[in-house]
Design goal:
The structure is a homodimer. Chain A is an alpha/beta fold. Helices cover 40% and strands 24% of the residues of chain A. In chain A, strand 8, helix 7 and strand 9 form a beta-alpha-beta unit. The mean pLDDT of chain A is 96. Chains A, B: Belongs to the isocitrate and isopropylmalate dehydrogenases family. LeuB type 1 subfamily.
């Protein structure tokens, strides 16, 4: 198989972990006789520095001409004082919109090998295996107006949560498709007792559910979901929600098992290419120190092989290598118990490649 | 001292726990020689059933004529299918708006006596002592438009996050006042990398901070806050944030210590009366079964004595009685370890009264 993969390392640890993904993908290509063409593009702060914009035309065209996109991370204190429209995060928001990446898919999985680092009790997190599906191109992130004004002599500001019903429907449908292949349970999260958009969300979920008689749907208010994720995370299979709610809840979910540095994500569109990125950010405090955990990025590459290229065996080979290395006790700093030895980013990459 | 207290039991367990607060307040009045006049009003589903509206004029007038308001809880499945404007929750939203309750104050405290029921590891939650200050009369809850429409032939929906700068300022100022009396640290939570309202929020926090040189301010993105609450909750002193973010984060914070059934809250206004309510909801599943934990409501009454009436000694007497009963091993079902004995609501009220 021959595939073109766009690599957008971005900022901070994004560069280091991207190298890890490429190394592992090259090893997979050799082992399974595939040809992966890697082309690099700038995004985020790196792109601002070089081109004055967080998402240059060139990068966007590169992505559109590729079969899949691997992204490291964007952002950092260096660009924090830039005006709104040339901040690194704008690059991320724009690429999501331009590629039509309407659903962000984040599996959260419990690894027994690193159970010791979860902030939760073992009885609570053991066996957690859920996916958060976050709407990614609408909602409070993209609605207009989003601006300041003076109203009756008072400085004021507005942001807007806007959805077309079909935007709500497609992401909920994606969640049902996923649940049908998993444990058959969708939890739709909203704030239907306050927001009109949530009432439409809830109705749409009910409508979509009719097409999936074997999938169980239940509704949960977002404040309750924030509690249930901690009290009883095992109750979830697929959780689907609005963009802003999803930003908050997926980050909350990602720390339950203690494996933030190990969690991949996929953002999918109607017609591709999909974008894959680790959940963790650019981590400016450890950037360039060869200390980041490359596993989330490497598992993102595995997700890409599975979802974009249908290479199930190859994806599993990577996932198994990661588990093997963890079972053997190898750790980067973020997942090492306090006072125990740990590997560098490079060291971890080498171990996974060797496994 | 002579005070008029409005009691709004509301729905579900609200009725049972309200009785607890009144019982304890009567005991305090006797002991310390005060006169508390209790007047009862309907709100939520109970008010819909009787008057066809979740907040009757009569109830509102009663509150305005009182020195403080004690509220149980509102809502329940019985009213879930009602149209938006006569749902129980509307009563709560309306009373907040009508009484100008701009800040909701929720202390989250670790009780060593019940450490066993926290979903988090003891090392993580031990010593947690924080307050969430949530903006309560603006933001995504109240902005207009909040409605459906058809745009370019597509069914659409919009909700609006709106603030006047002075609304942002007063709640942040409240947080600083509180922090100055506590550990001197304010964490202002926003989504400044995406929302314009959050950028105004952040700037306003910086401006207010200038008036409090002894209070340390730091900013945190809401997704990161959702993680930090679990990873390292001890880092927080006073957390202040927008209405919707505050709804999510304060509920998340309230389960960390396992003491959801024990957490009180106060909602404050510029000129009173303030409103006090437990954080837990109406819990329809156990309503009327004499099984609810009355402690959150009783501690809300203690907060009232302190904040509205300046009765510090009386407030402490209640808080000490609660601690004493817990230390002695008394539990309601929600805070009992699995398989250990527990008291009824009435039983717990009696023990606290006796202590
Ligand atoms: C960087 C930021 C704009 C982004 C978001 O809020 O979507 C990030 O937090 C994420 O979750 O991918
Ligand atoms: C009942 C509901 C409207 C309310 C809210 O969202 O404010 C509740 O969740 C709360 O936190 O007091």
């Amino acid at each position: 198989m021959e595939k073109r993969i766009a690599i957008l390392p971005g900022d901070g640890v994004g560069k280091e972990v991207s190298r890890g993904a490429v190394t592992i993908l090259q090893a997979v290509a050799e082992l399974f006789n595939h040809k992966f063409h890697f082309t690099y593009g700038e995004i985020g702060g790196a792109a601002i520095d070089e081109f004055g914009t967080p998402l240059p035309e060139r990068t966007l065209n590169l992505c559109k001409a590729s079969d899949a996109v691997l992204l490291g991370a964007v952002g950092g204190p260096k660009w924090d004082l830039m005006p709104g429209h040339i901040r690194p995060e704008k690059g991320l928001l724009k690429i999501r919109k331009e590629l039509g990446l309407y659903a962000n898919v984040r599996p959260v999985q419990y690894y027994s090998s690193i159970s010791g680092i979860s902030p939760l009790r073992k009885e609570v997190v053991e066996g957690v295996d859920m996916v958060v599906v976050r709407e990614l191109t609408g909602g409070l992130y993209f609605g207009k107006p989003s601006e300041r004004s003076v109203q009756k002599g008072e400085a004021s500001v507005v942001d807007t949560l806007f959805y077309q019903k079909n935007e709500i429907e497609r992401v909920i449908r994606y969640a049902f498709e996923l649940a049908a292949m998993r444990k058959g349970k969708v939890t739709s999260v909203d704030k239907a007792n306050v927001l009109e958009s949530s009432r439409m969300w809830r109705e749409t979920a009910e409508e979509v559910a009719k097409d999936y008689p074997d999938v169980q749907l239940n509704h949960m208010l977002v404040d309750n979901a924030a509690m249930q994720l901690i009290k009883n995370p095992r109750q979830f299979d697929v959780l689907v929600t609005e963009n802003m709610f999803g930003d908050i809840l997926s980050d909350e979910a990602s720390v339950l098992t203690g494996s933030l540095g190990m969690l991949p994500s996929a953002s999918v569109s109607a017609s591709g290419p999909y974008l894959y990125e680790p959940i963790h950010g650019s981590a400016p405090d450890i950037a360039g120190m060869n200390a980041a955990n490359p596993i989330a990025m490497i598992l993102s590459a595995a997700m890409m092989l599975r979802l974009s290229f249908g290479l199930e065996e190859e994806a599993e080979a990577i996932e198994n290598a990661v588990e093997q290395v963890l079972d053997a006790g190898s750790r980067t700093r973020d997942i090492a118990l306090f006072g125990t030895p740990f590997l560098t980013t490079e060291g971890m990459i080498e171990e996974i490649k060797a496994a």
